[in-house]
Every structure is written in structure tokens, then in C-alpha cells.
Amino acid sequence: MRITKRCRGRASSTATAFRIPGIVERYTTAEHRRLELAQLLYKNGEAAYLDVLTAPTDLYNSQLVLVSARLQRLTNLVDLYRALGGGWLEHSGDEPRPGDTRASREATAAK
Known about the structure:
Helix content is 77%, strand content 0%. By secondary structure, it is mainly alpha-helical. The chain has one domain (2-87): Methane Monooxygenase Hydroxylase, Chain G, domain 1 (Up-down Bundle), CATH 1.20.58. The two termini are 37 Å apart. The relative contact order is 0.13.
């Protein structure tokens, strides 16, 4: 029962992590457009130079958030895989299960 709750929690966080990058991508696209518009408005004398200076910073920040969201999505997938018993081996010198070795696969294929 405890494993089921853990898997359910990981699946839920993974589902959320898949939605967030799409939202952040749209925000990053909007920030890119804002940069272009700020530059155009400044060239035409309709905006202050401060708007042109802050737009790239905001774009950069949104890109950092996007990278973090994508990283979180991949991390959640790994956590879900581990919670489902996905054959994760710690770096503790553990040997793979016999079914994971090449010799055992060849022996199974020969039968």
C-alpha cells in the first residue's frame, strides 16, 4: 500500500511537471516579443530606453525558468521510474540482476 501511494504521488507530480514547461514556453515567447516591441518603440521615440534595457533581462529570466521547468520534468520522470521499481542501481557496487547480464540474455535466447 505504501508503494502505491508513493507511485501515485510521483505520477501526479510528473503530470504537473509536463504541463508547466508549455506554460513557461508561452511566457518566454511573450517576453521575446516584448523585447522586439520595446526596441521598435524606442526607435520610434515611443518608449524609454529603460524598457529596452529591462526587456532582455526579463527574457533571460524567463529562459532560466524554462530550463528549470524542463529539468524538473525530467527529474520527475526519473523519480517515477524509480518509484515503480525501474531497476535503479545505486553506486554502491551492486551487481545487476542475473536477467540483466548479457550471458543470461544469450542463455535465455538459446532456449
